[in-house]
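Marked as duplicate of an earlier ticket. Keeping the data here for the record.
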Amino acid sequence: MDGLLDTIASELAARGVEVIRGPANTPGVVVPLPPETVQNDLRRADVAMFSSRWRCDRQTLSALPRLKGIVNATIGLETVDLEAADEMGIIVGHGGAPEHVLSMAEAAIMLMMNLMYGLRQSERLMSTWRPADPEEGPHANMLFGATIGIVGLGRIGRAVVDRLLPFGVKLLAYSPRAERSQIPDAVTLVDLATLMRESDLVGVFIAVRPDNKRLINADAIALMKRSAYLVNVARGDAIDEPALIAALRDRRIAGAALDTFATEPLPQDSELRSLPNVILTPHIVGHTRQSIDAVIRVAVENILNVLEGRLPSICKNPHVEPVWRRRSEAAL
């Protein structure tokens, strides 16, 4: 994140914006900003950008009467107190350029295909220079005819759905906030228990909030078929990681592909690293050259929009615009 934020800072400086860089991220640690940073630096800011390592809580926001907006580079806003921002009339922008959404959707389907076709198992057979045991039979499964469960129908979840439809899959979805008008007719909305019980593969695409943290808990995982797979490209806190590790270790589910973890970077002693039925990537599986360029472009555009009195192009809380405008006028 630090390199990405440095690039955004350079782009803004080139456009005449004064940029104050905060403290560097500490891998694996998510904490509020130090009080001295808030008092000495952040109090001067018209717009603030927080990485996923720094928590933007109510106390921090209350100390910033000049602040007009928060613009995060990524889609995730789990470290920002959105309720407090709404109450105070602070506009919130974030990432979500088409290139980023589509890269994540393509990457998610890549992981699904790797799991269904058992690519790691095929690689192991190749490394031993021997054919598969005929008595074991083929280990791959077609995506065609499979039931895929989509947990979360935000932009990435919907993009995954659009790209799965041509494969001839049956699509189930759990997304309490989704509007039926935005969902393809081929998708069946179900409760979470039904989705977990009936799916051959479950993809997790939720934005983590206090009310859905560890939504995929031990009880939900216990409902899955022994032959089912799980893919998580959302956030580590979307899943009860110890419960998932136990299910993978005991072969109560067939496997998983994980791009995000409860602690990042994933500790070297994590049991996940030793399990043969899990694919692990370090929260970069959808980071294409095109998506990173787009993240930088959208972040700069969003910040400039707020500074010039316009809503961010990708805005989390446009409903607070009237209060935000009054706050912005008072801060002048």
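See parent ticket for discussion. The mean pLDDT is 92.
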